[in-house]
Specification:
By secondary structure, the protein is mainly alpha-helical. It has two domains: 84 residues, no CATH class; 293 residues, Hypothetical protein af1432. 46% of the residues lie in helices and 6% in strands. The protein has 15 helices and six strands. The strands form three sheets. A two-stranded antiparallel sheet has the order 1-4. Helix 7 crosses helix 12. Bound molecules: fe (ii) ion (FE2) (2 copies). One fe (ii) ion (FE2) binds next to helix 6.
Length: 381
């Protein structure tokens, strides 16, 4: 497989598998010069590493490295590492997922079926590791985890990873008997849902101001473009049904009442994973803190989303989603609505709220006003 040349990535001492055969080689940089790097293998793959060994390494070496070609094996091993917090593990998985997505979104690279296939296989490993780490998380716990992760510059990467995590959690809650493979599919669909944006100028994708009609029409091509991209580049990935991934990519902007795009599908004609993704997409857009806009509290987010239930969102799934926000008794009474064409995939300077009669309301982010909407009550017992 063509991987990233002779590249190594640094690994934390706390995330090395102990007393088990390690599925990757460990390296150190033995070069004294800052400009040049010379990697030397200090521990071979498939040997058991003890705590004593690790303590010795810690004393002797500043940093350990793993070769890029073994990143997959490193990610897979994370779940077995004891004692490290989930946020540390998730951070590693997230940075790997960002690296993979970046290969797809890199405009300078020639896009090929091979690249797509390789990247999707890597994304799948990242999602599998993610499923392992967050399998017992409900939405509110997940929200805390997501908030603890570092934020990157490119909106689509952070957003896609968060959406993937919410999809995993929501799908598990919706279908408790789901197999691991199905859950991974739900997460992979979420991670790739905006793949059709790779050919849209980043100036438009990352524009936090209101888009012109023309720009918005360009954005609206991404579900169909993503679908065609996957259709024209048949990939292989064990355990992944590409027809389902294609449908998530194609249908995640369809509305439950048939007013979405591009095909105006409605109800259960929209694939279940696409309906799951639509909820995850919306929720992340209005609750995750970005640099440019204030975010809603969980309960206000749920209240805003509730206004679109039956129109935009699947009512049954939404109910499961709200139940998954366990420790909150939802009292969100926010009276603002987002316009029908609100696009959760776009960064926004200010969320484009309207009052229920369709007039724009100002001052979102104005503390005095937002504080009056709903109170969070902790559930007793
Ligand atoms: Fe999208
Ligand atoms: Fe999105």
């Amino acid at each position: 497989m063509s991987k990233m040349g002779n590249n190594f990535f640094s690994v934390s001492f706390d995330l090395i598998l102990l007393d088990k055969s390690i599925p990757y080689d460990l390296y150190v940089n033995s070069s004294a010069s800052q400009e040049r790097e010379r990697f030397v293998r200090i521990y071979p793959k498939n040997d058991d590493l003890t705590l004593e060994d690790l303590k010795l390494f810690k004393k002797k070496y500043f940093q350990l490295y793993v070769h890029e070609s073994q990143r997959d094996s490193y990610l897979k091993s994370l779940i077995q590492v004891k004692g490290a917090p989930d946020s540390t593990k998730t951070e590693v998985i997230k940075s790997s997922a960002i690296l993979y997505l970046d290969k797809l979104f890199d405009v300078d690279k020639e896009f090929t079926t091979e690249l797509l296939s390789e990247t999707i296989n890597e994304c799948k490993v990242a999602v599998e590791s993610m499923v392992d780490v967050i399998k017992d998380y409900d939405v509110s716990k997940l929200q805390g985890l997501i908030a603890s992760l570092s934020f990157h510059d490119f909106y689509t990467y952070d957003h896609s990873i968060n959406v993937s995590m919410y999809c995993i959690s929501l799908y598990r809650a919706a279908k408790p008997s789901a197999t691991n493979e199905e859950i991974v599919m739900a997460g992979l669909g979420g991670l790739l849902h905006d793949i059709g944006k790779i050919k849209i100028s980043t100036d438009i994708i990352n524009k936090p101001e209101k888009l012109s009609d023309e720009e918005f029409n360009i954005i609206k091509t991404h579900p169909t473009f993503g679908f065609e991209l996957l259709n024209d580049n048949p990939c292989e990935c064990q355990g992944v049904d590409f027809n389902i991934i294609k449908r998530v990519v194609h249908e995640h902007h369809e509305n439950f009442n048939g007013t979405g795009y591009p095909k105006k599908l409605n109800g259960n004609d929209i694939h279940l994973f696409a309906r799951v993704t639509a909820i995850a997409d919306f929720f992340d857009a209005i609750t995750t803190k970005r640099t440019y806009h204030e975010v809603l509290t969980t309960e206000d987010a749920i209240a805003v989303m509730a206004k679109t239930v039956g129109k935009k969102l699947d009512p049954q799934l939404f109910e499961i989603f709200t139940k998954s926000v366990k420790q909150l008794v939802l009292a969100g009474k926010i009276s603002k609505e987002l316009p029908e064409d609100f696009d959760p995939c776009q960064p926004q300077n200010v969320l484009p709220f309207r009052d229920p009669k369709g007039f724009k309301v100002e001052g979102f982010g104005d503390k005095e006003k937002t504080q009056t909407f709903g109170k969070i009550k902790k559930k007793v017992g």
